[in-house]
Amino acid sequence: MSEGTILKEDVKNELKKPRMYKVILLNDDYTTMDFVVEVLVGIFHKAADEATRIMLDVHEKGKGIVGVYTYDIASTKILQVEGLARQREFPLKAVMEEE
Q1: 89 Cβ partners below 8 Å, 6+ apart?
Q2: Where are the domains of the chain?
Q3: Is the pLDDT of residue 3 over 70?
Q4: DSSP H or E segment with residue 95
Q5: Average pLDDT for the chain
Q6: Tally of CB atoms within 10 A around 46
Q7: H or E stretch covering 31
Q8: 3 state SS of 22
Q9: Which of 98, 91, 80 is nearest to 58 (CA)?
Q10: Which parts form a coiled-coil structure per UniProt (predicted)?
Q11: CA distance 40 to 52
């Protein structure tokens, strides 16, 4: 065997879990509570009671955690939220934080 040969046993196939990101909705003074619930149900597939609880967190605490996703999914969800908000002329914003 030559020096450059790599044995199959020497190669480790370690898969790392992807980094996860929390998607957070931010409160503002103009977006209606009904619209926030609509976003949570439509984009994040939350049940109505869970969507209402998250919406109340956003309203009362200034922000609410919607879910935890991989980077690509989190950034896509944020784009969907802000796109729909823009269509409806609401200033609703979403951000992500690494978990």
Answers
A1: none
A2: 29-98
A3: no
A4: strand 93-98
A5: 92
A6: 19
A7: none
A8: strand
A9: 91
A10: none
A11: 9
DSSP string, 45-71: ---HHHHHHHHHHHHHHSEEEEEEEEH
> Which residues, including other chains, have CB under 8 Å from residue 53's CB and lie 6 or more apart?
none
Cβ(24)–Cβ(95) under 8 Å? yes
Kindly tell me if the per-residue pLDDT of 92 is higher than 70: yes
Q: For residue 85, count other CB atoms closer than 10 A to its CB.
A: 20
| C-alpha span between 50 and 61 (Å, rounded) | 16
Q: Please name which of 32, 31, 45 lies closest in space to residue 77, comparing C-alpha atoms.
A: 45
Given a cut of 90, is residue 76 above it in pLDDT? yes
DSSP-assigned beta bridge partners for residue 97: 22
Instruction: Judge: domain 29-98, CATH 3.90.1150.200.
Output: no
Q: Considering only residues 12 and 32, tell me which one the structure prediction assigns the higher pLDDT.
A: 32
Contacts of 17 (CB under 8 A, 6+ apart): none
